[in-house]
């Protein structure tokens, strides 16, 4: 029977597919760490109180990248180059979502609108990350190799999502509500397209590695397209709503360490 658990199990049981999975994940997390670090360094003077939280966000992403690389090392594997068509963060940037890397590489302070854009983009992508980790935690929390990593990363992603909700609500109260809703909607609609394209590309690579039959590959592709159709019709709305989280000041302390992985 084809299920999310059996699919992930097949991927992690094979060294080559596991290498690709962890390499893609590590690359994306490391990229997120760099982006948050640059944003923290360029926060406008009036929002300097936000810088430690952005720094914490980046530190968490760096930690996740190290965890995925450590999982590879534990199995005696080396990372592989990430195929461009599977590079989620790069493809989002190409669609104009989030802050352009050219802006982050400069030394000019960001504007308040830039920070609002960053938070809105993060609220959308952290929704996806949180949901993915909930799925992995559901099936692999007790896995001898992946369990601790999955639970740690899932906890962090939930913190990141809570932080985005809380800060965006603060900016909404300060008069940025319309800009926030517009940016959230644009980001969500772009993200679901990129997620579909990346999912299809990743599954194509996994299929070649694992020798999937054409019918099986077709079923998986159809599932990805069906998810996109649902998200395009209504599912994107879950990415644009805002509510005060139960976890308040979720990124108010120093980043945790992962000595058992890194």
Secondary-structure blueprint:
Layout: H1 4-13, H2 15-41, H3 51-74, H4 88-94, H5 101-105, H6 112-140, H7 147-210, H8 214-233
Helix pairs in contact: 2-3, 2-7, 3-7, 6-7, 7-8
Output the radius of gyration.
18 Å
How much beta, percentage-wise? under 5%
> How many H/I helical runs?
8
Q: Can you write the helix and strand succession as a string? A: HHHHHHHH
The first-to-last residue Cα distance is: 36 Å
State the total count of DSSP E strands: 0
- Uncertain runs: none
Mean pLDDT, all residues: 94
List keywords for this structure.
mainly alpha; 71% helix; 8 helices; 262 residues
Structure notes:
The chain has 262 residues and is an all-alpha fold. The two termini are 36 Å apart. It has 8 helices and no strands.
Please summarize what this structure is.
With 262 residues, the chain is mostly helical.
């Amino acid at each position: 029977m084809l299920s999310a658990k059996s699919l992930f199990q097949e991927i992690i049981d094979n060294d080559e597919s596991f290498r690709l999975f962890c390499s893609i994940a590590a690359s994306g997390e490391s990229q997120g760490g760099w982006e948050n670090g640059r944003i923290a360094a360029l926060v406008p003077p009036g929002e300097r109180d936000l810088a430690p939280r952005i720094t914490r966000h980046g530190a968490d992403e760096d930690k996740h990248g190290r965890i995925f690389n450590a999982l590879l090392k534990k199995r005696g594997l080396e990372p592989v180059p990430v195929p461009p068509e599977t590079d989620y963060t790069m493809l989002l940037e190409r669609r104009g979502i989030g802050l352009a890397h050219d802006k982050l590489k400069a030394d000019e302070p960001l504007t308040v609108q830039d920070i609002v854009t960053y938070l809105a983009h993060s609220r959308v992508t952290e929704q996806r990350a949180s949901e993915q980790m909930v799925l992995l935690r559901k099936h692999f929390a007790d896995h001898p190799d992946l369990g601790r990593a999955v639970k740690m990363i899932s906890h962090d992603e939930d913190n990141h999502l809570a932080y985005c909700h809380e800060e965006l609500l603060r900016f909404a109260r300060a008069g940025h509500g319309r800009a926030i809703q517009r940016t959230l909607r644009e980001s969500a609609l772009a993200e679901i397209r990129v997620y579909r394209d990346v999912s299809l590309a990743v599954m194509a690579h996994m299929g070649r590695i694992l020798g999937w039959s054409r019918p099986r590959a077709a079923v998986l592709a159809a599932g990805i397209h069906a998810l996109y159709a649902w998200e395009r019709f209504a599912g994107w709305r879950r990415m644009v709503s805002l509510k005060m989280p139960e976890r308040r000041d979720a990124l108010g302390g120093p980043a945790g360490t992962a000595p058992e992985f890194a």
